[in-house]
Design goal:
It is a single chain. This protein is an alpha+beta fold. The protein has 2 domains: 4-84, Glutaredoxin (3-Layer(aba) Sandwich), CATH 3.40.30; 100-219, Glutathione S-transferase Yfyf (Class Pi), Chain A, domain 2. Helix content is 55%, strand content 8%. Strands 2-1-3-4 form a 4-stranded mixed beta sheet, covered by helices on one side. Helix 4 (100-134) packs parallel to helix 6. The longest helix is centred in the middle third of the chain and has 35 residues, at 100-134. The protein is globular, with a radius of gyration of 18 Å. 33% of the residues are buried. Residues 2-88 form the GST N-terminal domain. Keywords: Transferase. Residues 99-224 form the GST C-terminal domain. Its EC number is 2.5.1.18.
Length: 224
């Protein structure tokens, strides 16, 4: 049993990245505190005292003295994979620390996810999904047209990348694949369900990801 407390809103993509990672690691977290972003609970003084950045997810790992307080979903996922992941390199969610080529491919894939995929998928889903359903906002149709062009371009490049490898960072699953999943889920299910129709290699990767127990656990009962 870990000594981690997880602060999260499991309806949102960034926390979902972390839920996927936790499930893939088989990490048992007893203390999970849901923070309702739609009610601005992440801006309450008692929350900001714990996490001045006012965001979820973040963790408190009491294995250390003082406890480790860590925010940012990707950083937490990397930390958990390193601290609590398998010592078997073939099963690890991180690249072999002694293989500089594997590390380079991993870092490239991580950069693509953050600076190319997330940059457009995040904004497109905010406009078409979260703004109208959570904040009673009006979708900016013209902006969405531009974002759809952007996501088409990125996914075309991912399709070429996955023509030669099974996973985003090479031939084994890593946390980078999990980083892509939440926004891809909302694109596939709601925002842009035809996105993968003409991208066979991304579609094959997506079938692998959605068949995993971590995906089914995290998204089977999800309601936005």
């Amino acid at each position: 049993m870990s000594r981690i407390t997880l602060f999260t809103d499991s309806r949102l993509p960034c926390p979902q990245r972390l839920l996927l990672t936790i499930h893939e690691l088989g990490l048992e977290i007893k203390h999970i505190q849901e923070v309702d972003i739609s009610k601005s609970e992440h801006k309450r003084p008692e929350f900001l005292e714990l996490n001045p950045y006012g965001a979820v997810p973040f963790i408190r790992d009491a294995s250390y003295n003082p406890p480790l307080m860590l925010a940012e979903s990707r950083a937490i996922a990397r930390y958990l994979a390193r601290a609590y992941g398998s010592s078997d390199l073939s099963a690890s969610l991180l690249p072999d620390p002694n293989d500089v080529v594997a590390i380079a491919k991993f870092e490239k894939a991580a950069s693509i996810e953050l600076t190319s995929f997330d940059a457009v998928a995040n904004q497109l889903e905010l406009e078409e999904l979260f703004k109208p359903s959570w904040f009673n906002g009006e979708t900016n149709v013209e902006k969405c047209k531009q974002l759809r062009t952007g996501i088409d371009r990125v996914v075309d490049l991912l399709d070429k990348r996955l023509k030669h490898q099974q996973f985003m960072a090479g031939d084994k699953l890593t946390v980078v694949d999990l980083f892509f999943v939440p926004y891809m889920h909302h694109l596939d299910q709601t925002v842009y369900p035809t996105l993968l129709d003409s991208r066979p290699h991304v579609r094959a990767w997506w079938r692998m990801m959605t068949s995993r127990a971590s995906y089914k656990h995290s998204f089977s009962n999800l309601k936005v």
